[in-house]
Structures are given as C-alpha cells and as structure tokens.
Amino acid sequence: MKCAPFDYVRAASVDEVIRTLVGANGEGKILAGGQSLVPVLALRMARPSVLVDINRIPGLGTVTRDGSDVQVGTLTRHSVLAEQIHHPLLAEAARWIGHTAIRSRGTAGGSIAHADPSAELPVVAVGTGATVTMAGPGGTRSLPAGELFVSALTTSLAEDEMITSVRFPVPSRWGFAEFARRHGDFALVIAVVAEIEDSVRIALGGVGAIPVRAAAAEQVLANGGTAREAAAAASNEISPTADLHGSAPFRRAMAAEMVRRALAQAGVN
Amino acid sequence: MTATATDTAAAPHAEPIQATPSGSLGRSVRRKEDQRLVTGHGRYVSDFQLPRMQHVAFLRSPYGHARITSVNTSRAEQSGRRVFTGADFMHVVLRARSSLPSYVETDQPVLAHEKVRYQGEPVAAVVASDRYLAEDGLELVEVNYEPLPATVCAWVSPREPVHPEAADNVLLERVFETGSVDAAFGDAAVVVERDLVTNRHAGNPMECRAGVALWDPSDRKLTFWSGTQVPYIVRNMIAELLDLPEGNVRVVAPDVGGGFGVKSVLYPEDVALCLMARAMPNVPLKWVEDRAEHLAAATHARDHRYLIKAGFASDGTLLAVQADVTVNVGAYSVYPWTAGIEPLMAGGLLSGPYRLDNYRCAVRGVATNTAPAGPYRGVARPASVFAMETVLDAAARELGMTGVDVRRKNLILPEDIPYKMPSGLVDDSGHYVECLTKALDALGYDDFLAEQERRRGTDEPPIGIGFACYNELTGLGRAASAGPRMPFRTGHDACTVRVNPDGKVTVFSGVTSQGQGLETTMAQIVADGIGVDYDDVEVRIGDTDESLWGFGAFSSRQAVIGGGAAHRAAAAVKEKVLALAAGLLEVDAAALHIENGQIGVVGVPDPALSIAEVARVAYLESHRLPKGIEPGLEATKFYDPIRGVFAAGAQVAAIEVDRTTGEVRILKYVCVEDAGRAMHPQIVDGQIVGAIAQGIGGAMYEHLIYDDAGNLSTGTLLDYLMPTSAEIPEMTIEHVSHPAANPLGVRGVGEGGTLGPNAVLAGAVSDALGIQIDTLPITPSTIWKELQ
User: Fold this and answer.
1) What domains lie within chain A, and their CATH numbers?
2) CA distance B657 to B674
3) A positions 224-263 inside 8 Å of B (CB)
4) ipTM of this complex > 0.85?
C-alpha cells in the first residue's frame, strides 16, 4: 500500500497547474485534499507520472454570495462549506461527508472532479443546477454540472483542465436525505430537493453511474402530484445496480424513501 | 484452546467478596502503561528504526487457487534488490499437529511454491531500503499461474481439493455424543430446526502484524521483535523451524496495538522474515502488514454453518440438541492451533449454560481457497451462542413462552455445580439466572415490553428485545486445554518476582499485553501479594530473554494463569522477606506482617523494619544475613489451574427497527458478567465494552466476502465495514461477583463480551418484526428483503 513513483510539482498559480498538466501528456493528476486520490495511489490503482499540488495556490478557497448564487472556490474545504451560512443546503450536505479529518482536508472542487456517484457534492451540484468553471490551456470555460458528469469517476474535464470554482444557485426551499451503512460512509442513496425559481428539482446519487435528475418525479410535482407519488416516480425512473451493500430493488426502495424525506424537509407535500 | 475436560472435582462455593480494603487489588489504579501509551510514546514494532534496517514487501497470489508455473526474479534482482521465493525455503514447512484420530495433517509453505491456495498467499519477498522501493520491486517479479477451480464455501463439494491429503477438503471431524438423543426427540412436544449461517470476520487490530528480524552471526543469535500475543510459543517454534538452540532465539513483543487472537498465530510471513534475516546477517529486516494485507492474509474466523435441531418438553425443558456444524477453516490448518480451533470449540460449548442430557453434535473443519481461519476473540462461540439462543427463541415462540422464561427454565443453577456439560466440560459457575435477572432489571424490561405493546399497530418503529446467556470458558489449565490434542498443553505460566537491593520490586512475567493493561494487573497482584505500594512495582513483559515462560494472550487466560503465577511468586518472596526480617529482629516470622513496604510486629504500632532494609541485607550486607538464609530476594513460580474457569454472562438489548429502510437502532444494551473478583474494575469494564463493540460490528457490519473465483470482494475498509464510535451505543455494564476457585478468585473477561451480540441483536430483530434471522450479518438490506 505504497504509491508507485511520481514527480511532484507544487504549483504557485493556476497557470502553472495547466502548464504542468499539458506537459504531462495526460499522465498528470491534481492533488487537492487527497482524500480520494491518495488511497487510490496507495493501492496503485492510479499511477500518474506527475502530481500537481494546488493547495498553496492563493485565492481558491473562498465562499462568496453573489446575487442569487453562491460561488465556491475549488479549494474550499468541506469543513468550511459545512459552516458557511450563505447556502444552507450545501452546509447540510457537507456535514454528511466522511468524518472530521476528511472534511478538514477534502475540497469542493476535488469532490466534483472525482465524480464519485455516491458523493454528496456532485448530487447537490446537479440538484441545484450549479455551474462549474474550469481553466485550461485555451482559457476558462463554464459548464452546467449536469453536463460535467460522464460516468462513474469520469467527467468531461479535459486532462489539462482544472476546476477553479463552482457556482451554486441558492434554493428557496430545500431538502437533503442520505442513506448510508455507517455515519460518514459514501452513500447508498442520496436525495437532494431544491426549489429554484419556483420549480422543484430533485437529484439522486448512488443510483447509477452519475448523479441524476429525477425528471419524472419533478414532473409529477409540477402536475400537482403529491410528494409520495413523486417519490414513487423517482424510484421507477432510476436504474440502480446491486453491490455488496444492497440489491437493486433495495436501492430503488431507499431512493423512494430518501426522496420522500427530502421533499418533506423542503416542505413539499 | 478448545476443551473437553472430564475432571469433575467440586468447585468450592465462595461467597461474593468485597474489594480489598487496603492495597491495590479491586481498585481502578492508574494503569502503568498509560503514561507512554496515552502520550504517544508506546514502543510498537511498527515504529522500530534500527541501523542498517531494510524493508520487506511480500508478493501475494492474485488467485484463489492456481498452479505456479514459473517464477522469474531476474529483473527484480538486476534492480539491486534481494528477492526470496518459495524455492528458497522449500525445506521449511508449518505443520500444525494434533493426535485427534480424524485429523488430516497438511503442510503450509513459508512462501508458496507448486501452487497457491488462497488470494493473498505470500509467493515471494523483496527486500529494499524502504517499503516504497520494496513494493516497486514486487512489480519486477514475474510469476506465471495456471488457475485452478477455487472452492470458497465449506458446505459445497470441492471442485479441486485444496490439499491432496484431503480429497473432500475435510481436515478434521469429530462427533460429540451423550445420552439418548433419538429417544429424547421422540418425547419432545416441540422440535425446532434451523439452518444458520454466520459471517466471516477479520480481527483488525489497530496495529496490523509487524516484525523485525535480526541475525547476529558472531554469536549465532536471532532476535525477532514481533507484534505477537505469544512470544514464547514463537520462540519455541522459530527455534525448531530454523534448527537453532532455543537459547539462541530471542523474541520480543514490546507494545502491541491490539491482537484479538489473530496475533496468536505463527504466520508464514514471520518465518520468512526470520529465514531471510538469517540469509542477510547483521541486516535488520522489517515488515509491517498493511490493512489490505491484513484483510487478505491474516487469519479470518466465524465462517460457520449450523444445522441445528432442538427438542423441548411442553413446559419448555430442553430435552435434546442435535447439530451438524461446518466450519470454513480456510486454506491451511492454522499453525500451531490446527484446523480444530473453531470446530472443536463450537462442539464443546454449543449447549452453553443450559442443562442438557442428550446431545449429538458433529463438527468438521473444511479447507477452502480462502485465508486460513484462526483464533479470534470468542473463538466460535459468537456463532454457537447465536445458534443455541436462536433455537431457544424459536421454541419459546412455539410454546407460547417468553424468551426469558424458556431460558430460566433451562439455565444451569448454582445447585447444579459442578455441572458436567454434555461435551464433558465442567461448569463451575451456575450464576446465569442471577446475571439474566440483573440484566433485565438494568434494561428496564417491563417498561420496554409496555412500550413495545403500545407501538403495535402504530406507525412508530417496532421495538424488539433480545437475550443471550453464555458461559465463557476462561483460564484453561492442562486438562481443559487438552481437547485439540496438540503436542503441547497451554495450562501454565511462570512469573519471577524480584525485590531489588533498594526494596523496590521488579516483576518478570510471562504474560503479554496488546492493550489490556497486564503490566498494571501483574503489579497490583504482586504489590498486594508482598505488601508493597503499587507504585514501587515495575513489570517487565514480552521479552523471552527476561522472563521465564508464558503461553501468551488467548482463551481469556492471563488474569487467571499469569496472575496466579504472579501471586504465587509474590507469596514466595514475601515468605523469604519475613524469614529474613524474623532473623534480623529475632522474632518468630509468624508474628510479622507487611504493609506498604513496612514490616511490623503484631501488636506493636510502629513498623520494625522496612523491606528496603531487608533487601539491603539480602544483597549487600551478607554479614547480617541470618543463619541458613541465602543472599538475594527473588522467587519464580508457575501456576496451572488444571481445569478451566467459567465466567457467566447475560446480555440483553432493546432495539427499534425502521420498517422502511431496515435500519436497526439500539435503544439500550446491557451486559452483566461474573468476573469473579474484579482486580481492576475499569479494565474489566473496558474489556467487556470493547468485546461487545466488536460483537456488534460482527453482528451488523463486518463481513468478508469472496466471490466464486476466490477473489476477496471486501479487500479494504471501504467495503469491510468496521463499526465506529457512531455505531456503538452507550452500554450498561453490571457485575455479579462470585470468586472462582483459584488463588485470586478471578474469572477471565477478555472474550465474553463478543459472545452475546449476534444472538441478542438477531433475537431482538426477530422479536420486533416477527421475521427469522438465519444469516448474519443483520443489515438494512437483509431486513428490508425479509419485510417485502
């Protein structure tokens, strides 16, 4: 359980990160909080030739309110997200991430770039319709979170791009529910409910390769259906797979229950 | 470890005793080891740094079962690293021996050659200047395999035998039979029958296995610092395997970060490390197991199946038990305990603390292509107690009795003692009803029953109440440890007590500690045994060059056996102190007493002499030595209790279940145990709480799973779920105190806590939901499935 050899670059700026990634020809990896990357390195399941440490780059760890959105710098630690007051849904979601030590190191940008389908922040990003901004050799670009996630642990980020910030709309009403085997585990199922501009959005994590919108369930609510009907619709529109901790039917049932709980928390009946 | 004692001598019935009014026994004195352990100054093998030290990494089999067709080390050697393979150590094998008639002896190689028998088996070892470079070197060793069909389940026919000596994979089989089982079933009003499967666990101490081996060629001496629970057994076996005089082998177990049984085994990696060190003179070789290696290759346990049938009279009296127990013993018969360790314990203790005349139990240990199974805290009984309690609950339901009543009807009572269990073991306790009653009171049983009733028919989560009673066999003497018929008996330990020239005391004990506070316990015993202050006693343990002998930490034995030896050695030293003082004072020794290091004459208020003065005479002032008394102030004594000591225990809990998610919430968990005389109440409670926490982990979270090809699917702690503090409830621990018939009146408490949670939680969930729990662990998804 020791990493294979790699070169290490401590970048002083985003430009240096991009230059280093370009020079690594796809063999580079960004080290932010390291909470997912380092175990994978230790198991030799990832073998980057260059590790680019972004932790010392100034100005990437701030959370700011900007109109109806909250702008989260890529190096914002989960512990900071959990305590900020601008975006209560993000604060609640961050409290469900791992344990204190993990929250003190893990970062918002890192979690979203890692794209674990059972992680909290990607589901909040999809659920709120967040916008992800990334820097690359050609400058910066932005993408809706829903278009970032491609499959499990895979995003549409290019190998020489880096997330610099994520913009989360602040919902007028919200709910967050998670089912996990133990406190702090990656979730079996996460449900996020966010009312944005008078429409209720529902997103689910842990039920497929990427966080998904429960479009049918949202439609049920838009058509005046009840929360219970929406929860049933959500469990029908997903295609979860079985793993050691639960069968597909079990995950489907948990999805319905988590959607029900999140809607109840949001005050959607 | 397993036992079939037939000694039926009566145990005396001592009255409950009070804590020692003066002295340190019975009080939670400050633990001697905590100064260094709590402040981060523990001396763990994992932290060892020695000059010229090199690091070892093991290449492990990716296959569950495969023939090794070639091993090529040239690239790794060209890189400058030293490489060892199975071919280097073919002459050394680990062969766990037993003279039980059905036992099939098999060999375990130090490094696999010819074939690999489980995923994670060591195949080669690479030595480098640090662990990173050693692991890089593993990638340069080329091994070709020809995969063979793997068998991972012990109750399906093998596709390809694990060992040629056992075509059916059965390494051991034994039938326990007493009474007239068939006739008793004929008389039974109710017969319940269940097929129960328990889940495979890992021990997972916080510090994984660790070793540093150093061969000094100038005096032909091997030193092996090892995070072991059994340094003297390791010395004995390493000397034999390396063909060295035992005096040329020193094994040191300094601070060890948990053991739980998995470190009471001599592993191939241990032997490999010593053999490699011998091939690389003057170079300390270090190997520290990482968590992935631990989950794959340290011993596993608890992978059992019980086909159990029990017959009851209409009043609930247990008439007969018939069981067929299959234990998955993994790829090798674990050295030196043998593949019998779990099956024999299961057969010997299945009937637990219940009166039973008619018993037939076939047990077998079956080899599979999984990691070897070995001792793990509670050995077999968390599973066997689950089986026994499950049939009691099932019978109660059929008979319309409560779970409490059916247990009270059948528990061994104080007046039954000594009670010869159907397996031949002799129960010396009988205080089970007392434990159960006290536990129910502490739980608030009636209140939970009322609340359970109130919630019926509402939307609130249903409440369930579960019970387990158990008799934990501890401190096994030579008769009780005879069951597995191994070529050694683990009944005794030694202790040397030395009063130094300044009157302070050094204890050289054969016990070992993996965090249980044995330095403290031995110091308390010796301090009170002589009559000196606890603070004036220091204890040396874990170094085979310092102390004479001890079998180590297993079978909840050290408080009883190591403690007995310390007590006897202290008494012998005290006798000499008194004889010497009597000579100096020219009084009769019988007129003297010792308290707080001061020797007084009966009836005289002021002390006459201090132990320090006596010690000075013993070592430095031979001209003052009374006639006939040798210089020095030291004694060495052994102790063997001959039989075992049973510790009674009862655990009860109330839970509630979320019907939608299948989640179980423990509302209250109670344990009442009989530790006999609790020498250090806080340590006793710590042992019980820790053991229950481990038991809850096993009942609800921990599960090692192999796929059909022999791949371990739960190879990291991401998938092998250990309970954290968030999953473990506050517990209520209470005691009954019935001293055992040994010098200190103590009963072992190291393992008992693990025995209850499977049965308690399965019973409680069944009670809450009216479902059958036949397979462990109890998870939200399994409960949810049962409710659909």
Assistant:
1) 7-53 (3.30.43.10), 63-169 (3.30.465.10), 173-266 (3.30.390.50)
2) 31
3) 244-247, 249-250, 253-254, 257
4) yes
